[in-house]
Design a protein that fits this description.
Layout (H helix, E strand, L loop, with lengths): L2 H20 L23 H6 L4 H14 L16 E3 L5 H8 L5 E6 L5 H14 L7 E5 L12 H12 L3 E6 L9 E6 L3
Parallel strand pairs: 2-3
Antiparallel strand pairs: 1-4, 3-5, 4-5
Helix pairs in contact: 3-5, 5-6
């Protein structure tokens, strides 16, 4: 860079500083930088976890409601921990299901059913699907586990969640998660907006 170019830049900088001063611009006194915090993954509200510890009266009412949506009357083949779950209703486009399978929808909410009995899981899942509200083009994640802690390592809860989700009117599609999001121990679910 020549001396002439450097002096021209200095003149421009000085002219700019004078212009800013004459127009009433003052420098910011606080020089701290503010960094945006990353958005935390939302967790289900305590309503969902609290429902698992119902009193006998509310549990009976909830059971009557869930019997009308979720039935166990058909024979279900018990799934293994490695089985991939998938379901796509006729109301979902192929591209949307492909994006769901690839984990490309943002997860707006999740429900963890680890360690619950089938009855507790059914009640919680019913309440979750009834009350959850998510933005358009988002999904929810339901963690059912792989069944490693159950008797004979059978994925009983996974099998039942697969069956229940296919019956619920708000469920449009679901697919097992990517390994980073729980793999075959969880599902991404696209639900019908309210």
């Amino acid at each position: 860079m020549s001396d002439e170019t450097g002096s021209q830049q200095n003149n421009v900088t000085m002219d700019f500083a004078k212009l800013m001063q004459n127009s009433g611009v003052v420098p910011i006194k606080n020089q701290q930088q503010v960094h945006a915090k990353p958005i935390k993954k939302s967790k289900p509200s305590p309503l969902y976890y609290g429902q698992a510890k119902n009193t006998h009266k509310t549990a009976t009412i909830g059971t009557q409601m869930s019997n009308s949506v979720f039935s166990n009357h058909c024979e279900m083949k018990t799934l293994s921990a490695a089985d991939t779950l998938n379901f796509c209703s006729k109301n979902i486009q192929k591209n949307a299901f492909r994006k769901l399978r690839r984990g490309q929808f943002p997860v707006a909410d999740e429900l963890d059913l680890h360690g619950l009995t089938s009855l507790q899981a059914r009640e919680l899942l019913l309440d979750f699907l009834k009350y959850v509200t998510i933005p358009s083009r988002h999904c929810v994640r339901i963690i059912h586990g792989k069944g490693h802690r159950s008797a004979d390592n059978k994925a009983i809860l996974k099998t039942k969640v697969n069956h229940w989700l296919q019956q619920h009117p708000r469920v449009l599609a679901f697919h097992s998660c990517l390994p980073a999001d729980g793999g075959t121990g969880a599902v991404y679910v696209i639900i019908r907006l309210k």
